[in-house]
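As noted in the main text, all predictions were made from sequence alone. Below is one such record, for Efflux RND transporter periplasmic adaptor subunit.
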Amino acid sequence: MKTLRLLTIFALGGGLALGFYWSSNDAGWLAHADISAAAAAADRTPLYYRDPGGAPLWSAGPKKDDRGRDYVPVYDDDRAASEPARSKQQADSSRKILYYRNPMGLPDTSPVPKKDPMGMSYVPVYDGDDIEDGLVKLSPGKIQRTGVRSELVARRPIRVSVKAPGTIQLDERRVSVIAMRAESFVQKVADVTTGTRVKAGQPLMEIYSSAVASAAAEYLATISSKSVGSVEIYGRGSRQRLINLDVPEQAIAEMEKTHVAPVTVRWSAPRDGIVLERNAIEGMRANPGDVLFRIADTSVVWALVDVAERDLGNIAVGQPVAVRARSFAGKTFAGTIAVVYPQVNRDTRTVRVRIELANPDAALLPDMYIDADIDTADAAPVLAVPDSSVLDTGSRQAVLVDKGDGRFEPREIKLGRRGGGYIEVRDGLADGEAVVTSANFLIDAESNLKAALKGFADAAPPASDAGHAMGEHK
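Prediction:
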């Protein structure tokens, strides 16, 4: 029994000792790791310290926030504080230092090591480093995280499409009216109503007019005379009198054939088209000038659209136009610009444009709403960049030129036409250069941060108070 107790005590003591041994080794290993990380971080000099919570607070030296958390050191190469830097320093020690630059990116250099008014050390620039001024530099990790994409500048045709609303109107040159030129009476009206499609020469009505009957009798008497001279002298004048009374040519030819003066004269349609207006009623009296029929040829119609004043410079006679009627989804009518009216509407700041459209099936009706898509494309290719690459402030347009190796150059450009997702570049870029098309606003923000830090440094207090002012700045 005593032997069993001794063995139990011995086992417990050995386990405690063994546990103490492993715990001591783990603590020592962790302590060694922390010391190694601290030593690696101590080999590098931070540019400044930032608030651990991401607030816009900085400090030139180590500091704690209101919650007791340590400010995070920020290094020149944008790497984590725990990353070893001895190998980089050993490699840089064999390179020649050209000068020292301002740690905040300000245009200030020094031939010897120095500190800025906030107590931050100037950063050495080695032989072989990119020393171009005005460039924005990003680490490969930041480029990958932000999704920066670039595209080569190339020549391509710019398709500029001008869209404008409008309505369908009749061609003024294809509308005819039938009106009496002398006092007349409507004896009979054909079975023709408003909206009826008629053919040229189709009978419309029969008219009795004393003036027409008198002129017809005189003409027939003249042409029935045996005297050749009287026919030449008087016959021509009598026939012209009938023409002046607007008697149809078909009715005059029938008189000459039958040598009979008709009591009523048949009036026929002067053209193919649709009856837009019928005012003739059997038995009615028609005074000179009264319109009895109005007929329009709708095989060709006009589309009158209102183009915005800003697009007027891209519009020209003869340009092709695709017209879409809201009544026919998916159907397109092809036409061309015939007239650009020489007047700007002072209220809407638009210009009226006339487009001629073929309408053989009479699908387009007067006053129908349409949408016109005017193609102002120029076949000649021009230097162009994607829409997304341009940073436009209204008064200034710029792009970020990708110089490679994480370097980006902000460059002001002059733009031309826009269309098809691209913008013409008239000055500022060369063929083959690469511009940033994605996440360019993040790079622009990086550049603006440097400008903001420059203004902050210019207004910084003396060096003795710089650290305190930096920590309290919001």
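DSSP finds eight helices and 30 strands in the chain. Residues 1-40, 78-88, 453-458, 462-474 have pLDDT under 50 and may be disordered. These features were considered when defining construct boundaries for the mutagenesis experiments described in Section 2.9.
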